[in-house]
Batch of 4 targets.
Target 1
Amino acid sequence: MAPEDAGSGTPVLELRKVDKHFGAVHVLKGVDFEAHRGEVTALVGDNGAGKSTLVKSVAGIHAFDAGEYLFEGRPVKVENPKQANALGIEVVYQDLALCDNLDVVANMYLGRENRTGITLDEASMEKSARETLDGLSVRTLKSVRTKVSSLSGGQRQTVAIARAVLWNSKVVILDEPTAALGVAQTEQVLNLVRRLADRGLAVILISHNMNDVIKVADRVVALYLGQTAAQIKAKDTTTAQIVELITSGRSGDIGLRDADAENGGAA
Ligand SMILES: Nc1ncnc2c1ncn2[C@@H]1O[C@H](COP(=O)(O)OP(=O)(O)OP(=O)(O)O)[C@@H](O)[C@H]1O
């Protein structure tokens, strides 16, 4: 069950009419986007719709050219990944950025290790890593001292997600977390995604997999040619409707007006 106030009130993350160009290419065109605590927001769109650009701009890798970026209702400037992390925004990219030759604890603390003087505080890191995994009800890892090279794809994804939530995160963005997984591991990761939201995080899930979206999302934001085609509650929509929004920018009376979509296509 999501927290009582899930999805209500001020969004944790809100983008209003954001724009992004790469040289002459206009990639994001006045995009609106909201993510709320306690909810999984699926960000969907065809290849090239602008999902990665949107997420990288939220994460401070790129900067929006125009529009408003609000965090917990306040306008913020996020000009680099450290500033995004400081707000409580973490991204788990598809490559996971794990070091195979290090164990789970070392990977969860990579680059942000606890130190006492000049030595690493292994005991405190191991304790918090374990507590974080226990808090997420992760039971598939036998030991936090296991090297990541010996973990399955699902376990690796779990470690990358646990690393993201270790830092009192408020927003966790997951880029296609089940893309390389089999059926059982996909199920495990989707359950974990749900638990993150149930713990009060705002989870943003980039996905091309409509089964995943329908199974786990509370809200769906569809991008079409760099514009927001729709922001809708998952329970009010169907897979067919989402697919239509992705492929044509509209479905029934939801979505971009044809003229807008055509302008987007021509830009
Ligand atoms: N650094 C860049 N320089 C120039 N153009 C870029 C850059 N990054 C992305 N683009 C362009 O922006 C558009 C949107 O790309 P983006 O990767 O954001 O889409 P996406 O929705 O994430 O697609 P996919 O599902 O294929 O990952 C594409 O036309 C892409 O070529």
Note: The first helix runs from residue 51 to 58.
Target 2
Amino acid sequence: MIRFDHVTKKYPGQGRPALDDVGVEILRGEFVFLVGASGSGKSSFLRLILKEARPTSGKIHVLGQDLGTISSRKVPYFRRNLGVVFQDFRLLPNKSVYENVAFTLRVIGKSRGFIHQAVPETLKLVGLEGKEKRMPHELSGGEQQRVAIARAIVNKPQILLADEPTGNLDPVTSAGIMTLLERISASGTTIVMATHEAGIVDQMRRRVIELSAGVIVRDERSAGYDGQTVRDVEYEPVTEGQDADVSADAAGAKPAKRGAAGTAGKAGAAKRAPSTKAAAGDKPAPTAAPASTSKGTAAGAAAAGAAGASARKKVDGTKPDASPEPATTTGAAPITAAAPKVTPEVMRDAAPLYIEPEATDAVTDEAAEITAAATGKIAIDPKALVPEASDADETSAPLTLAERLGLRAPGGPRDDDRDQEVGPTT
Ligand SMILES: Nc1ncnc2c1ncn2[C@@H]1O[C@H](COP(=O)(O)OP(=O)(O)OP(=O)(O)O)[C@@H](O)[C@H]1O
């Protein structure tokens, strides 16, 4: 679904690369946390998946496509398969909740009938039924983030990228957002979420990829924020001249199973107990904690929190205490100032604001037909399309919201596109 092969990203004028020879594979339906200190390369990783930036070297495959072969003209269409959520919500401040979500669909040419059905349905999914007419400033931070999530998923993307989606929210609200993301993940959407929130990562127990100075120093299934410096997830590097095996992915099948032997992370891996290694190609078990750790409990989470400060400070990829010995689960460690913001209690008490979707196949089929009919008749003027992105553009000309979301209309910008240049609404 997402595959990086020897990917290096250097920004102009930067001494060291933001990402350095990164190799990783994320499978369909996985929920992956991207963690690491500030500047470790998390946002760059997400931007490369979105094709907002180009790798300096290496190959990236997303949804079976080699991103290097997608022309600028086709990037907006590619991005329609990806939903994006940001820390600062990025809602249109002068549009209602309904219009913020509908905007996505209008720009890509969905019919009025489809929009009237899909928007309320999605708002209901995220727990915002009845708030369609509110303006963003009339919503709480958590509600604003729900609108942003609704906007990201209304077109049913296969991949949802989230860059610090809880960074501006209090613990209880964050827990509600995580409940929502968890349910979206359960419906089959692949989610990659960059975060600094140790408590959330510790509670969710999903795959964790840790970056340090642009290098993957940890890739563990069902892990916590802090962990061993080890690659626990299979990744078989593609050698020079050999392309990634993405044909199965493109055809909608699960990727072929890879070799049983794991590949050690670049920073040097400590071997893990064989019993903790899941078979290649398996989905990570969402709740099972690795045998070598015991942070799935409140006590464990507290211990993780106590350890969090030192873990977050490390930048060289080596864990201060990389002992494979299980941490004790008896006797809760005192929760220090560095303890996770989101506690087990908060997660448990978080109201499940997500409501099960109703059958939508008919709507989806109808939308596909409408989109096919609509896009088939539109003459595209190549001159009006976005020019090839360059590294210079990345630093000097930020993308519009429509471009980031893959929503630029065929034929070029529309009159009200300026509305998209908005910042945080809180
Ligand atoms: N557009 C850019 N131009 C030049 N350097 C950049 C650019 N974007 C990121 N960098 C640099 O690349 C490195 C990685 O940055 P990135 O934003 O990917 O890290 P991050 O882990 O997301 O950080 P944070 O958690 O603070 O958001 C940093 O050294 C940063 O200064």
Note: The chain has one domain: 1-239+264-271+283-409.
Target 3
Amino acid sequence: MSTTIRIGTRGSALALAQTGQIADRIRASSGAEVEIISITTEGDTSRASLSSLGGTGVFASALREALLAGECDLVVHSLKDLPTAPAEGLVIGAIPKRADARDALIARDGLTLEALAEGATVGTGSPRRIAQLRSLRPDLDIRDIRGNIDTRIGFVTHGELDAVVLAAAGLGRLGRLDVVSEFFELSHNPTAPGQGALALETRQKIPGDLARVLQGLDHQTTRLTVLAEREVLARLEAGCAAPVGATALIDSDLLLLTATVYSVDGSQKLTASHGAVLDGSPADRNAEAIELGRRAADELLSSGAAELAPLS
Ligand SMILES: NCc1[nH]cc(CCC(=O)O)c1CC(=O)O
């Protein structure tokens, strides 16, 4: 490629790590020059809790503005932080292969959730994680925490909390899987739609050589599973901070999706599991994945999901 690809990123360690990893892949596959441009977002500067910021889009919007203003050509988002509504003038040009979608417990003395003492303090700001923790261990003292991944790990290593829950993918990207004391299985603890996946966003109109670079980074299986998972959120009209877990997987030609909505106190949940056979063209498959997410969400809504939990 003749021109430089400018990638916009937040300044957090996680954003820099995942942007750097994508930049390396672009350089290796295309030989293109890649420049990394730092952009500050409200989600980075605000001290309010993530749920009080409304969740949706606090990290994404400044990056999207920079894209639209032509300050950069590409941004790398954590897919789970990206609002489901499409952004005018922008497209997701590639969804690379997903990392581990599970949540992980980081606990004092390497304890598992089951082994934590009665009334132990566990930090998380996510309503979904709060509900899942309360359903398994109603005795725990759950604390709302904020901050980047290193700060959250520090709550445990500095002795302020007995444990925190974080996404395995973020820990992996920062090379911090050594602190994990337990991985929660997706069958028991489904995670946020799109967790562990990245979205590479660009302007709608891009040069053909950038489009080809992005095509080379796209991963079909990841794209189909996250399309199904994210359609659950979209159809429920739920934000990324809603107490909703969704996990899709592909087994040969079968796409399987399980979606769960929790009451915030963890005492109740609704689950819908659906499958679809994938056939036809890539566009047909995308449509089938979205339709699967819609069916799961509609079942949840007709079972009372909107009454069970605050979704938006
Ligand atoms: N909510 C913040 C956030 N957004 C993306 C990740 C990393 C995992 C991912 O890319 O899905 C995290 C940290 C976490 O949830 O522990």
Note: DSSP finds ten helices and 13 strands in the chain.
Target 4
Amino acid sequence: MNVKICGITDCKTAQFAIEAGADAIGFVFAESKRQISVSKAKEIIQTLPKHILKIGVFVNETKENLESIFEEVGLTHLQLHGDESPSFCQTLRYPVIKAIRIETELDINQIAEYPCDYILVDSPLGPYRGGNGTTFDWNLLNNKNIERKLILAGGLTIDNVLLASEIVKPVMVDVSSGVETDGKKDEKKIEAFINTVKRGGI
Ligand SMILES: O=C(O)c1ccccc1N[C@@H]1O[C@H](COP(=O)(O)O)[C@@H](O)[C@H]1O
């Protein structure tokens, strides 16, 4: 299973995560305590190997801005956490990851509506559109035969990621808050998270 470390804001942490085995690095362009500038994200991405996914996180951004930031920075995917409609996603010229907040069974119906490369399932809880460090009821997605590539996010930590993945069966897990200490990325937690996912232990 692949691992995405999200909310990276400096080269050193990005390099550390990749050496520890991360497959994808996320950059938050939306309003957030983890927000990064276009120029900083570009600087970091220029140091990353080609095979690593470089994912930009946005909330209700315009098509024009999404596409120009994608090109300018060198992203591989646009991760959308706002109220972007299926038809809006379809107009975008680049690979899309649509985040869907899973609160009830009804939310699962939305997955089929989005013609995206990946669907990211996230928690509905918390004040922001993502990055809240809160989980959701993973059992809502158990045995649903969802024929889409799922990315599991929302409050993942070394203590819950294996159980959550066993239930949801994602192709990738995505973590931000769970690898931070006092609001900053923590290398020990990043390493432990990746080791837990890839090797089943710290
Ligand atoms: O990280 C943020 O601040 C953020 C802001 C706005 C939208 C999405 C954001 N992050 C994404 O949220 C999920 C869950 O993160 P967490 O592990 O619960 O902190 C993840 O996909 C982040 O990429």
Note: Residues 192 and 202 are 5 Å apart (CA to CA).
